[in-house]
Amino acid sequence: MEKKVIIDTDPGIDDAVALAMALFDPSLDVLAITAVAGNVHAEQATKNVQTILDQLDPPRLPRIGAATSPNPPLEKTTSHVFGNDGLGNSNFPVAELHNLHPSEKLLVEEVRAAPDEVTIIALGPLTNIARAIHRDPNWASQVGHLIIMGGTVSAPGNVTPAAEFNIYSDPVSAQEVFRSKMTKTLVPLDITDPLIFSYDFLDRLPSEDSRGGRFLRKILPFTYRAHRQVLGLEGIWLADAIAMVAATNPSLFRIMDDMSADVETNGFLTKGMTVFDRRVHRKWKANLAVAMEMDSDQVYETILKALARCGESTLDS
Ligand code: BDR
Ligand code: CA
To answer: Which CATH class is domain 3-313?
Structure first.
């Protein structure tokens, strides 16, 4: 049976790769894609979701939720690695839809329509998830599963020494979500950072005789160049693509299912840090599972296979 999913995303090139994987996966029923501010501001995030759907034109069109600005506003975006528009300054034309419902409304509606059946894959800050909880306090207990790309257990942060970008961008929302009753699994930087997608990955993308191949080959070179120039890396990170594999192929991960974590919302040096209670005599209650290790080779191949499917499904006729 297909797994019903909602993808909450702040595209972002690695988000776009994750969407290309999901939209042609026969094991998934993508009910909605809900935009959230993060890599880019709210309006651009919504536009990017529309652009990605427009470019890929998948067989089944999910609903689209519009991002609204977080409060307080974003402190940082990631134009240095993903371009000013989040998609490698690709300038895709798109006929923007207006009057879209806000993301949190779609999240509430879709989960209510299929209680306990929906997996939410959160690839950006947790703003929309926290807002959905505010809209309906019973909602959290109806979510089947929340998979979160974010945080760190022992690894350093990526936006500050202590914090990962998605959690740092809206730590108050992240704290509410961590403390909520939802069944959640965290996919932290500890497992996503060590896997660098080298130029071999770029070479193995679907060819330009498909919509998917053209799209991926247009957006990804920017971030390869940026990772080399800004970070001195001969490859890129694709944290969100790895989180997508955690949703489709959990057996490739070692998941510890009774971890206790909270989020620092105020610290001068530690804002957005995910703090785990790993004392011998732990005092905090278990509140989430964490993907601690993965079979990196298999995860890498699974991502390429999903993208190959996107290419095959969008071949020029
Ligand atoms: C996360 O931050 C964003 O920049 C990426 O899209 C990913 O979701 C990695 O820390
Ligand atoms: Ca993201």
So the answer is: alpha beta
Torsion angle defined by CA atoms of residues 70, 75, 79 and 81, in that order, rounded to the nearest 10 degrees: -110
The answer to whether the CB of 51 falls within 8 A of the CB of 85 is no
C-alpha 143 to ligand 1 mean position (Å) = 23
Which of ligand 1's atoms lies nearest the C-alpha of 82?
A: 4
Q: Break the chain into its structural domains and give their ranges.
A: 3-313
The model's pLDDT over 114-132, given as tens digits with 9 standing for 90+, comes to 999 999 999 999 999 999 9
CA of 38 to the centre of ligand 2 (A): 7
Query: What tokens does 263 get?
Result: 């989020």
From CA 33, how far away is CA 87, in angstroms rounded?
Answer: 17
CA 135 to centroid of chain Cα atoms: 22
DSSP state of 117: T
In our burial notation (b when 16+ CB lie closer than 10 A, e otherwise), range 6-39 reads bbbbbbbbbbbbbbbbbbbbeebbbbbbbbbbbb
Which residues have CB under 8 Å from 36's CB, separation 6+? 8, 9, 10, 42, 45, 67, 103, 124, 125, 127, 128
**Angle (deg, nearest 10), helices 42-56 and 13-22:** 40
Q: Which atom of ligand 1 is nearest to the CA of 149?
A: 8
With a cut of 90, say whether residue 97 has pLDDT above it. Answer: no
Residue found by looking up tokens 């994750």 in the block = 18
User: Residues with Cβ within 6 A of ligand 1?
Assistant: 12, 14-15, 39, 78, 123-124, 149, 158, 164-166, 239-240
- For residue 148, the model assigns a pLDDT of 99
- What is the per-residue pLDDT for 137? 87
- At 43, is the secondary structure helix, strand, or coil? helix
